[in-house]
């Protein structure tokens, strides 16, 4: 099958009317650019200059010139967040997603296509195998994913890196070789170099990618069971997640996934807790013990397992009214044009605030949940605590996450 047709078979491509292309200038993303332009897809390209190499700005402009020749609008974004500490590649990846997602939303794009290939799937598989990852870590990258409020497509996952470069050479097109791709200081580079030896043992990139694909099918099957269990056993109670008592009878892997999704949403976190910590929490919950994990409180109760925010995790979190608090709460003021929110802040209610809510027991929420509940303050004066029976016309609304949402499990 021709390369262009294989590219167009990528999930989401034919349905997307306004597509963004993340083009670094490397061989994979330049092949993505040429294939999309040749296919006549309405696209807009973007290059992120991470500011880490003096050549990067010139390379971004070079991508722009290729885009101009192909009739593809092009923008350049610059990241200046690296302070020399931590994991550079991970921080750059996260920053790149945030920047591109904001750019795409501003441009009215429906999705952004990335240039990940079959070789990336194989390298990622080996890297995560070395870390002892489970099914989710070893499974192939998702061809369609939602993160940072944007849909991300990977239409090249079934195509090898060398095949794409051969296509570029056939076109007479050039690409940029980033010197960091040969720097053994990075795990991915060392794994890429090791794969050359593994190929002699039959572990070629296509074979490793096939195994990752099989595990992706297992992941999808587990997710289907997760959705069934969530729809049957889980409910949201004013920001807490309550899992009905039969939840402890679920297969351990489904229970683990359900707890991980619930904790991620309650904590407003990009990721769930790590496996060993979650496993230990599960064992203690089985014994009827209340535990704290991931900034949350897991309390076995007669109604089931209640998962709520831990007050200590949010006691210092402050947001101006009108800004989202703790990643998921919006406090909405009473109606009326003459109502002013100047000087108001959203904070956790805490013991002092709860003491000013005489009717909090009538709310039906347990005291630990109310301590971590959002409330409105003006200095030391409590203005409203909607979840604790002191609304004064205010309402509190919990919103979905951008990077994965427990609520979606309940709406299938």
TrEMBL record:
Alphabetized UniProt keyword annotations: ATP-binding, Cytoplasm, Ligase, Nucleotide-binding, tRNA processing
GO CC annotations, alphabetized: cytoplasm
CDD domains attached to this UniProt entry: TilS_N
Broadest EC class assigned to this enzyme: ligase
UniProt cross-references to SUPFAM superfamilies, sorted A to Z: Adenine nucleotide alpha hydrolases-like (SSF52402)
Pfam families, alphabetized: ATP_bind_3
Superkingdom, natural source: Bacteria
Compartment(s) of residence: Cytoplasm
Gene Ontology BP, a term: tRNA modification
The enzyme's E.C. designation: 6.3.4.19
GO molecular function (one): ATP binding
Residues covered by the tRNA(Ile)-lysidine/2-thiocytidine synthase N-terminal domain: 20-193
Catalytic activity: cytidine(34) in tRNA(Ile2) + L-lysine + ATP = lysidine(34) in tRNA(Ile2) + AMP + diphosphate + H(+)
Binding site for ATP: 24-29
First-listed, main subcellular location of the protein, grouped into a coarse class: cytoplasm
Recorded family membership: Belongs to the tRNA(Ile)-lysidine synthase family.
Recorded domain comment: The N-terminal region contains the highly conserved SGGXDS motif, predicted to be a P-loop motif involved in ATP binding.
Function: Ligates lysine onto the cytidine present at position 34 of the AUA codon-specific tRNA(Ile) that contains the anticodon CAU, in an ATP-dependent manner. Cytidine is converted to lysidine, thus changing the amino acid specificity of the tRNA from methionine to isoleucine.
UniProt name for this protein: tRNA(Ile)-lysidine synthase
Source species: Cereibacter sphaeroides (strain ATCC 17023 / DSM 158 / JCM 6121 / CCUG 31486 / LMG 2827 / NBRC 12203 / NCIMB 8253 / ATH 2.4.1.)
């Amino acid at each position: 099958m021709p390369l262009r047709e294989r590219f167009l078979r990528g999930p989401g491509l034919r349905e997307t009317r306004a597509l963004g292309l993340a083009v670094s200038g490397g061989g994979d993303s330049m092949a993505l650019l040429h294939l999309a332009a040749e296919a006549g897809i309405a696209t807009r390209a973007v290059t992120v200059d991470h500011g880490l190499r003096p050549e990067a700005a010139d390379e971004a402009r070079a991508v722009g010139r290729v885009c101009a020749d192909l009739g593809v609008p092009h923008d350049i974004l610059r990241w200046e967040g690296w302070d020399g500490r931590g994991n550079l590649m991970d921080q750059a990846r996260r920053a790149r997603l945030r920047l591109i997602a904001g750019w795409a939303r501003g441009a009215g794009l429906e999705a952004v296509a990335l240039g990940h290939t079959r070789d990336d799937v194989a390298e990622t598989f080996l890297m995560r195998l070395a870390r002892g990852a489970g099914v989710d870590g070893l499974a192939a990258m998702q061809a369609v994913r939602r993160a940072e409020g944007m849909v991300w497509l990977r239409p090249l996952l079934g195509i090898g890196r060398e095949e794409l470069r051969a296509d570029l050479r056939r076109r007479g097109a050039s690409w940029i070789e980033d010197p960091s791709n040969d720097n053994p200081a990075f795990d991915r580079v060392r794994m890429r170099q090791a794969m050359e030896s593994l190929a002699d043992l039959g572990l070629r990139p296509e074979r490793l990618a096939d195994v990752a694909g099989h595990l992706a099918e297992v992941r999808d099957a587990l997710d289907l069971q997760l959705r069934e269990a969530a729809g049957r056993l889980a409910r949201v109670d004013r920001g807490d997640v309550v899992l009905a008592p039969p939840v402890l009878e679920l297969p351990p892997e489904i229970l683990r996934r359900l707890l991980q999704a619930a904790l991620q949403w309650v904590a407003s976190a990009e990721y769930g807790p790590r496996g060993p910590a979650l496993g230990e929490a599960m064992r203690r919950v089985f014994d009827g013990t209340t535990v704290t994990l991931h900034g949350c409180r897991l309390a076995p109760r007669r109604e089931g397992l209640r998962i709520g925010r831990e007050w200590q995790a949010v006691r210092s979190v402050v947001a101006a009214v009108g800004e989202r608090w703790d990643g998921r709460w919006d406090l909405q003021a009473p109606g009326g044009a003459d109502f002013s929110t100047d000087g108001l802040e959203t904070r956790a209610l805490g013991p002092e605030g709860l003491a000013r809510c005489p009717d909090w027991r009538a709310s039906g929420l347990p005291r630990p949940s109310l301590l971590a509940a959002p409330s409105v303050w003006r200095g030391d004066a409590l203005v409203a605590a909607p979840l604790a029976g002191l609304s004064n016309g205010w309402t509190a609304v919990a919103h979905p996450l951008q990077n994965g949402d427990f609520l979606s499990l309940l709406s299938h």
